[in-house]
Amino acid sequence: MREEQPVWRDGSGHVHVFRHADVQRILADTATFSSDTVGRLSGGEKQAPRGTLLLLDPPLHGKMRRLVSRAFTPGLITGLEPWITELTGQLLDAAPENAFDLVDVLANPLPVTVIARMLGVPTEDRDRFQSWADQLLSTDPDDPESVRRMEETAVTISAYLQGFIEARRKEPSGDLLSTLVGAELDGERLEDEDIASFATLLLLAGHITTSVLVGNALLCLDRDPELLERVRADRSLIPAVIEETLRLRPPFTRIERVTTTAATVAGTDVGPDTLVHLWLLSANRDERVFEDADAFRPDRSNARQAAFGHGIHYCIGAPLARLEGRIALDALLDRYARIGVDPAVRLSWHGTNVFGARHLPLRVHHA
């Protein structure tokens, strides 16, 4: 598709974009390609809450992002490393001796617990968060019953968070919910719905990104035993392994934009109010940018992968996901002299837009 049809219009009139340069250009052009797919495609009848950063356009996006970015400064993220390392060890301590599911034992509970602590909600509720995330991620937009269940789950999450939001209004603490409760946007306090929507976004996107990243990194290393041993011997290679995993197997396969006016993409005319699918998975394998693009090569000198987006919507949690991924891989290699995906178990995968295994059974031998 990248070579012969870099822009494709499907039967619904949606446009799909596959090349790296085109994807990056569209992500950078927020005037022509809006993130507000909810508002624009409903003719303004629906509006995304202000806390849903992924669906906001300038100038509101910039104002909201500046508020929440206080919890994601480099210093604060670096300061989490000792605790995340300790948490990772505790999770692996509880793992069965010789075989376990990486997703259940580590890849899911690690980021969910971190996000819960940052928000200021009980980390003991992480199984509940995981269940909600699974329900939201399994939504089929073409199935009315699936959409109804998704909406019910969203209401349940909002109701859960409401109690903590009200508590922070009465007695703030040092967590992210308190920051949002006390913040003002254009001279007005954020509505509870705005705060709950951002917290939901963090619990969902913040956990699935790291969960899939850790699993995908293990899958890639499992298929190259020689590389696995090189990384075991030289842990300075782990950041490059993380970046190459994000390139070859990005957590999300695509993101969407909607045109605000008529536009031209790679020679193809696109009308206003058209939904545009930007295929990150394809962009990250574009031969025009990456030599031997389908190979897993952490030693690439050109690592311009698009997994975390580009421009003003570049993932605010990217440094945290990278940190969690690095700590998880380091801990696994420290603890186990041999580690590999169980070849006897057939893997099950997430839905269309999430690129990773739902469960990843491992066989291990302690160091």
Description:
The chain has about 375 residues and is α+β, with helices and mostly antiparallel strands. The chain has a single domain, classed as Cytochrome P450 (Cytochrome p450, Orthogonal Bundle), CATH 1.10.630. Helix content is about 50%, strand content about 10%. Strand 5 and strand 6 form a beta hairpin. It is globular. The N and C termini lie far apart (about 45 Å). The mean pLDDT is about 90.
- Output the CATH topology: Cytochrome p450
Q: What distance separates the N and C termini?
A: 46 Å
How many domains would you count in the coordinates? 1
CATH fourth-tier homologous superfamily? Cytochrome P450
Oligomer: single chain
Order of strands side by side in the largest beta sheet?
1-2-10-7-3
Q: How many E strands?
A: 12
Query: Architecture, CATH level 2?
Result: Orthogonal Bundle
Structural class computed from helices and strand pairing: alpha+beta
The coarse overall form would be globular
- What is the radius of gyration? 21 Å
Quick summary:
The strands form four sheets. The chain has a five-stranded mixed beta sheet with strand order 1-2-10-7-3. About 50% of the residues lie in helices and about 10% in strands.
Q: Tags for this entry?
A:
alpha+beta, 3-stranded antiparallel sheet
List the helices and strands and how they pair.
Elements: E1 7-9, E2 15-17, H1 20-28, E3 33-34, H2 37-41, H3 60-68, H4 74-79, H5 81-93, E4 99-101, H6 102-107, H7 109-119, H8 126-137, H9 144-170, H10 176-182, E5 184-185, E6 188-189, H11 192-222, H12 225-233, H13 238-248, E7 254-259, E8 263-265, E9 268-270, E10 275-279, H14 280-283, H15 318-335, E11 336-341, E12 361-366
Parallel strand pairs: 2-10
Antiparallel strand pairs: 1-2, 3-7, 4-12, 5-6, 7-10, 8-9, 11-12
Helix pairs in contact: 5-15, 7-8, 7-11, 8-9, 9-10, 9-11, 11-13, 11-15, 13-15
